[in-house]
Amino acid sequence: xxxxxxAADVGPIPGDLRETLPRIRDLALEGVELDLIGLMPLEDYxxxxxxxxxxxxxxxxxxxxxxxxxxxxxxxxxxxLEKRIEDIRRAMDLTYQLGxxxxxxxxxxxxxxxxxxxxxxxxxxxxDLSRWGERAGAVLAVETGWEPxxxxxxxxxxxxxxxxxxxxxxxxxxMHGYDPAEAIETLGRWxxxxxxxxxxxxxxxxxxxLVPLGQGNVDYPGVLTALExxxxxxxxxxxxxxxxxxLAELRQAKEFIYRL
Length: 260
Description:
Layout lengths: L5 E4 L7 H10 L4 E5 H4 L7 H13 L3 E6 L12 H17 L4 E4 L11 H20 L2 E5 L5 H8 L7 E5 L1 H6 L4 H8 L3 E5 L2 E4 L6 E4 L8 H11 L5 E3 L7 H14 L1
Parallel strand pairs: 1-2, 1-10, 2-3, 3-4, 4-5, 5-6, 6-7, 7-10
Antiparallel strand pairs: 8-9
């Protein structure tokens, strides 16, 4: 049976970390997602700052389910690539120092042809980051949903074990025309983190929009069954959409998951 462990992305919740964490704990959630650069620039994470964040988490008995690094470009863009690699390494170190295990990052476009130079460069960079993760104690969780899950698996196959995996959000797969449950089964053992997102079709079939969990088209009974089938043991991370009261939305999302 799939063990339900819920966490929340603190980013959409107003207030600083000291105000937000007790609100999350009041909802009986177990963990949080932190946007590293959203909290402060990477260079401002001094030992004192790291200790303070760890203390805030410990005070409210919350774990760091996922750290996120948001950069303006992915690993598919050669311009400034070395600096981005340095930032990712630093963020992986920080993730471990903050008590977490997984760092999410969007790597960019994945070429379909493995003979493509960009594909080979991306594979080499990911291999380097995977080895770095083994030393740092934190693993890179690649954001997915834009390409077929099989393409992601093909890219990851052959990389050093234990240093890299994926983050899954069923809403992203649905928005790009893929079946979320099938994608989860394809990604299988590579899944490190899971976002419980939902989407609905726009009027007239003009794309999709994100909606609160349980109000969209994603087949969550099928998604949770797929997670159980592949042996996923991590958190289900809830992220408010920003359409209303984020804490009320988190509460409703939690109730939706437990009803299933």
